[in-house]
Write a structure and sequence with these properties.
2 strands, 75 residues, two-stranded parallel ribbon
Length: 75
Amino acid sequence: MNAKTWTPRAAEIDRRWYVIDAEGQTLGRLATKVSGLLMGKGKPTFADHMDSGDFVIIVNAGKLVVTGDRLLSKR
């Protein structure tokens, strides 16, 4: 059996644009969601040594929710 590992080329990576509305979402959950999109973790062609992520635009960032005392305790 001759098994070979397939690595996608830069031209083969399908990049998409996402527009995310941050209004009413918590800071940590939004950051987790966006970081996964930027790294391309949800793609079947994900490879940690390649840039296979998508493009993300966040709107209404001033209206996102910060829970607990995080807003008061951070500088």
